[in-house]
Amino acid sequence: MNLFNFIKGRVSIVDVVSEYATLKKAGLYLKGVCPFHHEKTPSFTVSPHKEIFYCFGCHSGGDVIAFIAKAEQCTQLEAAQHLVERYQLTLPEELLKYDHDAQAVRNDDRKRYWQLCQLVALWCHEQLKKNTQPRNYLEKRKFNQVTIEHFKLGYFPNSPQALKELIELIRQHHFFVQDLIQANIVSENKGHYFSPFADRIIFPIKDAMGRYSAFGGRIYRPDDERPKYYNSKENPYFNKGSFLFGFDAAKKQIQQQNAVFLVEGYLDCLAMVQHQFVNTVATLGTACTTEQLKLLSRYAQQVYVLYDGDQAGKQAMLRFTQLCWHVNLELAIVELPTGEDPDSFLQKGGNLTDLVTQASDIFVFFIDSTAKGFANKTLHEKMEVIRELLEIIAKIDDPLKKDILLQQVAKRCDIPFTVLVNECNRHSPQTATIKLQEQVPSPPATQVLKEVPLLEKKLFSVIINNMNLLKNEDEEYLIEYTSPPIRDLLLKLRTTKDEYETIDFSLFFEQLSPDEKVLMSQLLLECYEYEGPENLDYLLSQFQKKNWKSFVTDTKIKLNRAKQENNVQSIQKILTQFQELKQKLVSRGLI
Ligand SMILES: [Zn+2]
Predict the structure, then answer these.
(1) Count of other CB atoms within 10 angstroms of residue 418
(2) Which of 94, 180, 265, 364 has the fewest CB atoms within 10 Å around its CB?
(3) Whose CA is closest to 217, among 201, 194, 234, 238?
(4) In angstroms, what is the span from residue 59 Cα to ligand 1's centroid?
(5) Whole-angstrom Cα distance, residue 43 to residue 263?
(6) How far is the CA of 74 from the centre of ligand 1 (A)?
(7) C-alpha to C-alpha distance for 176 and 157, rounded to whole angstroms
(8) What is the edge-to-edge ordering of all strands in the sheet holding 360-361?
(9) pLDDT digits over 420-440, tens only?
(10) What pLDDT, on a 0 to 100 scale, did the predictor assign at position 200?
């Protein structure tokens, strides 16, 4: 047994997948809308007894570990680690002794980092309860207790005594000051310890799986002249461009509503959630990245961007037109009144729902903003504007959307539509096609499987479901006559059988490469109605009937060769095989 088998034996794929997708029973299987690509008709299938999944839309597939690796965009080992933590599995000593993966999972430094961050976060949360000034500040900003608890807001006191307490606390959990320094929570100067977070309100930042990973600290005293925010520095476990504040708590809602609100700051996020816009996340004081949008695209199709209603906010929103090619998302801009941010707007009692219904598509917003005051621009400026607009619109894959937007530009700028279409076509049509190809990658495994005749797939499915029923001579025959992907799997099955005394599906599955695992999941979920042992004989005969002509030709060649070599034993064997198969097929009226 290895780590992966150990996990799979204790974690149900249905439980795990259900955290990401809603599954409904469909015969022996479960089906749901795929969490990895956008679709309306469910093509995501899970087999509870084989513990595998396959999506007929985006062709992802594999076991529970492959599922987590894909869902959380991590390696197989990280996925294993996640499952061990999530389901609180205790790894047996035996496994830890011999399995490198198991050792890595147990001794992972990241785990200690997360643990340390959690200790600090919860300690700061306690400190907030004891310190009235920062609490009053939050109260003045109208954040209630529920919100403070929801985000586990905290306060980092500015006293040597408090720092001593924190150091004492972490020591009890076998951490040292050095760990705090390494995590950039504490700094040292000539033997004195201090924290860059001191006297700041603390916003703990969790990763997508809810592990405390970093902190944001905000000043709250009006006379505090330090920068408004101090964020944890990036480290191997924390990278600003891939984290979203509030994501772990919001992800279920984001998935359910198929929509997410994206704001710029911690306080905006707090205000949104407090006002029941629970599917809200915030970037961490930096511009939104493709990585963040990709993360969101796995959970929702619609993103509402709510940035400050000032010039900088507008500029930031325009940047999204450059980002959204890379992701399968619909972006809409919610425009706030000038001078407002989501927090100030909501706390004043503004009606955000109205603004959301009036949200404009990112491209419409882009045209409106870029072409503003077009009539009064100089010729040179006008040409610049048109060029800028066409460059973006030319990249859009959907021809209908392209047309609609060009019509809008035509109207806004008073230029004939046909002129714009011609100009647009001249603008980098190649880049558009390249982008299109990037978006629809065809996994090699699926490509390969397309070429395989259905009969072979069915036959293979029965064999995998009844591994011990297959006779050696039939196996030989199949290895000779099936197409490459099936043949490779059968060869692997034979080696596995030789290697182990008893063999079952999960043991065999573990021997496969990641690509083969996807292939296997697809095969099995595509042909699940042929699982029963009673089908083996029937499908095998059908396959033999189909290949009868080649078999006859091959037999002749083999026979000739054996005769030349004067190999009597071989001649006898070839003849017997031929006679037996012929008899079988004739008796069934197949030839
Ligand atoms: Zn899919």
Answers:
(1) 10
(2) 94
(3) 201
(4) 6
(5) 32
(6) 17
(7) 19
(8) 280-282, 259-263, 302-306, 330-333, 360-361
(9) 888 888 775 554 443 433 344
(10) 98
